[in-house]
Amino acid sequence: MTIKTVMVIGAGQMGAGIAQVFAQANFTVKLNDLSEEALEKGLNGIDKVLARNVEKERMTEEEKSKTLANITTTSDIKDAHDCDLVVEAVVENMDVKTKVFQQLDEITPKHAILASNTSSLPITDIAAVTNRPEQVIGMHFMNPVPVMKLVEIIRAIQTTDATYQAVEEATKALNKAPVEVEDYPGFVSNRVLMPMINEAIYTVFEGVAKPEDVDQVMKLGMNHPMGPLQLADFIGLDTCLYIMEILHDGFGDSKYRPCPLLRKYVKAGWLGKKSGRGFYVYD
Ligand code: CAA
Ligand code: NAD
User: Fold this and answer.
1) Residues 215-229: what's their mean pLDDT?
2) pLDDT value at residue 283
3) Distance between Cα 146 and ligand 1 center (Å)
4) Same fold flag, 5-182 and 190-274
5) How confident is the model over 140-174, as pLDDT tens digits?
6) At CA 146, angle to CA 150 and CA 107, rounded to 5?
7) Does the C-beta of 90 come closer than 6 Å to ligand 2?
8) Cα separation values, 232 from 10, 48, 94, 118, 245, Å
9) 190-274 has which CATH code?
10) How far does the centroid of ligand 1 lie from the alpha carbon of residue 147, in Å?
């Protein structure tokens, strides 16, 4: 199947980036969110990133205009009626996601593939709420989407080879690198990354070192581009906690228990960069 028209559901930090990279690769993109305000915020973010690309001579002004012209925004999910692929990037909440997938199953053409950008939720369970489980798949982009090369492609137990191949082909058309992964808690990316972040939070919790010193150790000692606490703030501490809970519940192993300090920060609304405060304070 050839994918031409794509809807991205959710115009937040991930959805906006996903819409941008599809539009840059000349797909027709419909960006959907609940409100005009969220759509405007998403589109403004895309415009800023593209303007930076023009300024840095990575893109011409014409390419920028063409990319923006490939994106339309809509708060009506029914506009997915002619899409070949939908990539869902709404909040990391199973109830919200399953509702969206049930709606999409009703609205989209029979051939359409329904993908989720979930960080950790089981694709098999999401697929099971639709009448086309063989056409449901995980398409896990990394943050920031325009910069990061990887797309982890997660096969639900029901996903067919034809669905996998169509999504792999689309990923390559975005100039991204697909990696095939089976559907287990945290997939590969977050099963490896999140316990490291959680352990970094434990070192602060136990008074081993201050956040900036933990980050320095990993940046200067291990050549990580961001320290684990800076990265946790960047991802969102609510998302980090959610993923740790999925790992803990999914494997039933105490090594995945979320650090109490992470729970406390999330309860306090200290969600990282997006809320202005996490392990660091932001303007
Ligand atoms: N959107 C688009 N481009 C961005 C960007 C964004 N949000 N943030 C940074 N960039 C671009 C900048 O434009 C910049 O290029 P120019 O200066 O040439 O324009 C380039 O990236 C480098 O940015 P900076 O100089 O500002 O800062 P940096 O060198 O520290 O790089 C970074 C920023 C690329 C984010 C880097 O710090 C990094 O790679 N951090 C780790 C990111 C990471 O691990 N991501 C995965 C998170 S886990 C995940 O996504 C999965 C999940 O389910 C939670
Ligand atoms: P975000 O909070 O920035 O954006 C979510 C957007 O979804 C918001 O604009 C919200 O208005 C919208 N939304 C909520 N319910 C909706 C609905 N029913 N229909 C349409 N739009 C709706 O979140 P984010 O960080 O972009 O994360 C989105 C998804 O991507 C989550 O599943 C998350 O786990 C995953 N993810 C996040 C990261 C990360 O680093 N933040 C990385 C990879 C994957």
Assistant:
1) 98
2) 86
3) 8
4) no
5) 999 999 999 999 999 999 999 999 999 999 999 99
6) 85
7) yes
8) 21, 24, 21, 17, 15
9) 1.10.1040.10
10) 6
